[in-house]
Amino acid sequence: MAATLIERYIAAVTKSLDPTTQEDVRAELEASISAAVEARADQGEKRTDAERAVLTELGDPAVLAAGFADRPLHLIGPKYFLTWWRLLKLLLWIVPVSVAAAVALGLTISNAPVGEIIGQTIAVTLSVAVHLCFWTTLVFFILERTGADTGVKWSVDSLPEPHESGAGRSDLIASLVFLGLAAAALLWDRFVGFVVFSTGDLDVTKGLGGQTAAMPFLNPELWPWWLGGALVLIALEAALAIAVYAGRGWHSGLAVFNTVLAIVFASGAIYLLVTGQLMNPDFLAFVVDAGGEGFAAGDAEAAGEGGIFRILAVLTGAVIIGVAAWDIIDGWRKARRAQRG
């Protein structure tokens, strides 16, 4: 004899329950379903339609069984969700970006083709992001099921201070002082020189022998046009800092202007670095002469990667691009925060 809808429903609910509770749940369901069906039948509804309607209202038997067994049907519940989400966002901001930069830098130093650098960087970064999401979620899943305490508790002391929407005078002064020092450093390097060396013999026990002199660190041939352009960019950065202060904060227009300045600076510096025009050739020759055989041996060992100077050039380029990228991101972050404020 075929089982009725009610019998099939109760069997579906109780089959995944602990055997010690199955009979109690079965009796409870039979009583509640029968009462609901009888109530509908007393109102004139056909019994078969009443049974179907009552079972439909009860919903998926697996969900009902989870309620009887006190078994959660979510991966991460509200107790752990915010901690999981905050930690995952922080890790996704730091780990994949760091890995991508490290992989791209290593492949660039090893003189890999551009296509391989891009492909390997994307593949490794995606793999790291997937693993990061999976393992972080798995840890919180285990915490959820075992009922362990993460140790993270909210209190009124953790309330953040409200962000000021405007730019303070201290920010303006710090920016102008930093930009002034940068301009002074460029002029000092050009007309005086940062690299101090001895015109006599070099005695490692007594220091620099003979008279001392100085040479520029940057290529003197960059003056006046390239270094003049750098001074103009510094002046525009100062004007940007004043505009931020006068406007009591950032907005989209200032963020765009800051992005343009950062791209222009990074593009010019990278171009000079790649074409070998950034550093003073006399300084590079002085470094090789001062290093003697040890430096030459090190340079020979690194010949497969293009030599020590090429490695240093790649690292310098990475720093230039990193600083420019951070400046752009920081400007847009501040503009977005000001808009929300």
Describe the structure.
Helices cover about 70% and strands about 5% of the residues. The protein is built from 11 helices and 4 strands. The chain has helices spanning about 5-15, 20-40, 45-60, 60-70, 80-110, 115-145, 170-190, 225-245, 250-275, 280-300, 310-340, and strands at about 195-200, 200-205, 205-210, 210-215. The strands form 2 sheets. It has a two-stranded antiparallel ribbon with strand order 1-4. Strands 2-3 form a two-stranded antiparallel sheet. Strand 2 (about 200-205) and strand 3 form a beta hairpin. The longest helix is centred in the middle third of the chain and has 33 residues, at about 115-145.
In whole angstroms, the N-to-C terminal distance is 70 Å
**Main sheet strand line-up:** 1-4
One letter per element, helices H and strands E, the order comes to: HHHHHHHEEEEHHHH
Report the helical percentage.
over 70%
As a whole number of angstroms, the C-alpha radius of gyration is: 35 Å
Net shape: elongated
- Indicate the proportion of strand residues: under 5%
**Average pLDDT rating:** 80
Number of domains: 3
Broad structural category: mainly alpha
Count of helices? 11
Unreliable spans: 201-209, 292-298, 300-306
Query: What's the count of strands?
Result: 4
Largest sheet: 2 strands, antiparallel
